[in-house]
Amino acid sequence: MNKYKRNKHGFTLVELIVVLVILAILAAILVPALTGYIDKAREKTAISQCRACVQAAQTLASERHTSSSPLSLADADQILTLAEVKGQGEITTLTINKDSSAVDKLVWKAANGIVVTYENKQYVIGKASGLAGSNLALSDLISNMATTLTAANPTFSPQSVVDSTSPNGQKKTALLNNPDIKSILESANATSWKLAEKGVCLYLSDQDITQYNPGDYVRILRYNSNLKTYTAGYMKIEKYTDNSVGGTGETYNIFSSTFSANGSNATWSEAPGQDSSTKASYDEALKIYNTMSETKSK
């Protein structure tokens, strides 16, 4: 009786190559899908954490509605504790509506690096902090601001000082009613800004200085239209009561910006690593600005 002979040969080289090709194709299909699934899961977690912070902030803000000490970024630890997300990230921006005590804006930076911005009752992924834009025409912006001010009200000087933090200032309103001015400020992602030094300098910052205390230093990018220079640094915040023409008589936070003739100021600290080449370009100054910490010790 003949015995069946077993085929002791393995796979041929061609068969192995075919198998490897099939595995490579499957990996090319499955790995991106799996990576996308992981990324979406991380984003959902960050949004959930941000939502918890917004709800906690709203609760605390409502409790302080009639208090002389409204909720601010200084209360971040209390918000994180109530939201039960302490140690899972940080709140980098918090804006509370002065009249309704509603949370207008909250930016959450999760420990996994994802940034979530709550604004206009929506949660947006990836709106990171920092100034933005490229080769912004700040010289033209300052000229446009001067023209807009005098056109809005003949009593407004083209060399006016204008603060973005003015609650209901007519000068600020006049500038923001100009779509070209508003567009550039939005392109720069400037949360706080100031036209100063008799209309010569413009300060831009991604920080909401209404949420800081007088005496704090926050990062800014300063454009000097006389020297055509862009400089990154830290500016001190102070309280100011606006009794000027078109002012409100209210007290609010502003950038302190009284410079001496040589450009020095005890309330201003220039960031290191800058020279004539970096100061000649908005983009180069922007790179330095966005690597700076948001605040500086006093």
Main attributes of the structure:
single chain, 298 residues, alpha+beta, 2 domains, eight-stranded antiparallel β-sheet, 12 strands, 23% strand, globular
What does this structure look like?
By secondary structure, the protein is α+β, with helices and mostly antiparallel strands. Strand 2 (about 105-110) and strand 3 form a beta hairpin. Strands 5, 6, 7, 8, 9, 10, 11 and 12 form an eight-stranded antiparallel beta sheet that branches. Helix content is about 35%, strand content about 25%. It has helices at about 15-65, 75-85, 140-150, 170-175, 180-185, 275-280, 280-290; strands at about 90-95, 105-110, 115-120, 120-125, 160-165, 190-195, 200-205, 215-225, 230-240, 250-255, 270, 295. It contains seven helices and twelve strands. The radius of gyration is 27 Å and the shape is globular. The chain has two domains: about 30-125; about 140-295, no CATH class. It starts with 12 loop residues before the first helix and ends with a strand.
